[in-house]
Amino acid sequence: MPDDLPERPARPLSRRLTARHWTLLDGAIATAAAANAAALAATRHPEPRGLTWDLVRYAAIAAVCLPLPWRRRRPLAVLTVISGAVGVSMALHSNAWLVQLATLAMYSMAAVTPRRRSLTALAAGVLVVFGGALAGASGSLSGALGSGVLLLVGGWLVGENTRRRRAYEKTLAERAMEREAQREQRIRQAAMEERIHIARELHDSLAHAMSVITMRSGIARMLIESRPDEARNALGIIESTSRGIMQEMRLLLGVLRTPHAEADVPEADAPVAPVAPAPGLDHLDELLARVQQAGVRVDLRAEGTPRALPDSIGRSAYRIIQEALTNVVRHAGATSARLRVSYHPEDLAIEIVDNGTGGTRPADAVAPPGTAAHGLVGMRERVHLFGGEFSAGPLPEGGFRVLARIPTDEDTA
């Protein structure tokens, strides 16, 4: 072991002793006390004398010493027996020092008993010991008080302080566990929300890419014999779109596979894939170019002064536009659309209007019914996440309109 490593701090002796160790220690103390008390009773011959009184004295010694090893398991019962036996010993002028064992029992009782019950036990123990000491001191009040009553009170005070300290430490431990549980809950909640966000991002990207691929594959199939150049161009668009969506899927699924913030360390020769930033409004040109390749012309109109927006708002605005244009390509049967992005001081307004039929059901049998409705729900959730307004529906003159207003105040970002 290196010399500069810090030594592990040793636990206090009281924390290292087990219950069995404490029982053996109390047994040794009780044995020594019983032997000493019996020897004193045999040599001093205090008043009153006689065989009967000697038997009572020895019985009191046994009642004080024998229960001591059980003071941690049955503290109240042990205190009751020891206090009564000590009172008898004091009344018979024998082994007044045994009150020290009663003090030890008083401490054990107060350390584990609620305060109200321990005060009752203290009062009872003090009365018993005080009565025995008063009788043994021939009515002297000062002699009775000096014969162990103050020791019992002191033992209770130490035990009560130990009980309160243990309760405080237990409260601290419970609070620490509660804070740890709350922290883990927040981590799990954040991970769940992030995975939901990633799933939504993946859905939007995949739906848009598949729309482009579906449209271009149909064009390639129809023109492969009559116009091979245009078919080849459509296949090239399919290839580039597929490569882009596959790369984005690898990035997003890589995040989903990582359960914690720490990723596995790659091998030395393994290439590290760069993490591409999520697209924002500055990527609209690429999006509109892909929609143009799918056969829908989009006119972009920007109003107001473009400004830097929080990343969360920029990503959501991009995904709303992407999903709305994907619905135009897949379901509206439109040939053109108009996109208006308005920068207002208090919000960002996005409007997409197409010249299609205005329906929400897919125009081809390949796309399942109701998928456009799911896209509208996703757009509405993104807008409501920032406390904005969202509306979508067919226009009286034909076509379909999507309008979203996202507050851009810093408090909503």
Radius of gyration, in Å, reads 43 Å
Mean pLDDT: 77
Adjacency order of strands in the biggest sheet:
1-2-3-5-4
Number of strand elements: 5
Structure in words:
With 413 residues, this protein is α+β, with helices and mostly antiparallel strands. The chain has helices spanning 13-16, 19-44, 51-65, 75-91, 99-112, 115-136, 141-223, 228-257, 284-293, 311-332, 371-385; strands at 297-303, 336-343, 347-354, 389-394, 400-407. α10 (311-332) links the parallel β1 (297-303) and β2 (336-343). The relative contact order is 0.06.
Task: Note the main attributes of this structure.
9% strand; 5-stranded mixed sheet; rod-shaped; 11 helices; disordered N terminus; single chain; alpha+beta; 413 residues
What is the structure about, briefly put?
The protein is α+β, with helices and mostly antiparallel strands.
Topology:
Layout: H1 13-16, H2 19-44, H3 51-65, H4 75-91, H5 99-112, H6 115-136, H7 141-223, H8 228-257, H9 284-293, E1 297-303, H10 311-332, E2 336-343, E3 347-354, H11 371-385, E4 389-394, E5 400-407
Parallel strand pairs: 1-2
Antiparallel strand pairs: 2-3, 3-5, 4-5
Helix pairs in contact: 2-3, 3-4, 4-5, 4-6, 5-6, 5-7, 6-7, 7-8, 7-10, 10-11
